[in-house]
Amino acid sequence: MEYEKYENLREKVLGRGLVVAIDGPSGSGKSTIARKVAAALDLGYLDTGAMYRATAWWVDHRGLDVSRPEELAVAMAKMDLKVTAVAHNPRFFVDGFDVGHVIRGEHIDSIVSGVAAVPAVRAVLIALQQRVIREARNSTRGIVVEGRDITTVVAPQAPVRILLTADPEIRLLRRALQDTGHDGAEALERERALVLGRDMKDAKVNEFMQAAPGVHLVDSTSLDLEQTLDAVMSLIDQNTDWDRPGN
């Protein structure tokens, strides 16, 4: 079994409603790690970045103008966004339409930061994210939530809060291999514009490059995927002492 070595930890957190919050910049590996943690420990999984992408698609599809936040706030009240928060097949529906296949392209890459910076968008999505977390916690299944501001804004009381990061050049290399299948100069320059550019835009709204107090830093620069997962699992184990007062 792929996750056999985590079986004891899975039994430890089973039925406890554990919430694991993971933040990090583009290319840090947070989505891959979050999904693997959720799969190994049988927790739910929520990709909040995809929620912003789905919203960006909806805003673009409707021809809404992000420079008019009052109008966008009124429109946001009518958006119907639903998520399937599972690791093996997360899905996102906007007004009943499955947008999973349309939110990962370059066009959405180019507009999502602008949409995510609108206070009305953030207010609606943060409320929805917190509702999904609350339901997962109350059901006792628990959930792994990843994004940009989970450890500080969305779930600051989560028992396990982690900032996953890596050297910028390593992040560019990983994203180039993920998106194009190779790491040539052209692919790296393409990712440099997309990844670092988006990080700069998003950093104006969220602080996700430095760990806030109480947030554990995992630097995966010199770690492979398995080592990074081991490091995150170790932190989960260390921070889920269910006999400790307050848990």
TrEMBL record:
<protein>
    <recommendedName>
        <fullName>Cytidylate kinase</fullName>
        <ecNumber>2.7.4.25</ecNumber>
    </recommendedName>
</protein>
<comment type="similarity">
    <text>Belongs to the cytidylate kinase family. Type 1 subfamily.</text>
</comment>
<keyword id="KW-0808">Transferase</keyword>
<dbReference type="InterPro" id="IPR003136">
    <property type="entry name" value="Cytidylate_kin"/>
</dbReference>
<dbReference type="GO" id="GO:0036431">
    <property type="term" value="F:dCMP kinase activity"/>
</dbReference>
<dbReference type="GO" id="GO:0036430">
    <property type="term" value="F:CMP kinase activity"/>
</dbReference>
<dbReference type="InterPro" id="IPR011994">
    <property type="entry name" value="Cytidylate_kinase_dom"/>
</dbReference>
<keyword id="KW-0418">Kinase</keyword>
<dbReference type="GO" id="GO:0006220">
    <property type="term" value="P:pyrimidine nucleotide metabolic process"/>
</dbReference>
<dbReference type="InterPro" id="IPR027417">
    <property type="entry name" value="P-loop_NTPase"/>
</dbReference>
<dbReference type="GO" id="GO:0005737">
    <property type="term" value="C:cytoplasm"/>
</dbReference>
<keyword id="KW-0547">Nucleotide-binding</keyword>
<keyword id="KW-0067">ATP-binding</keyword>
<feature type="domain" description="Cytidylate kinase">
    <location>
        <begin position="20"/>
        <end position="237"/>
    </location>
</feature>
<keyword id="KW-0963">Cytoplasm</keyword>
<dbReference type="GO" id="GO:0005524">
    <property type="term" value="F:ATP binding"/>
</dbReference>
<feature type="binding site">
    <location>
        <begin position="24"/>
        <end position="32"/>
    </location>
    <ligand>
        <name>ATP</name>
    </ligand>
</feature>
<dbReference type="Pfam" id="PF02224">
    <property type="entry name" value="Cytidylate_kin"/>
</dbReference>
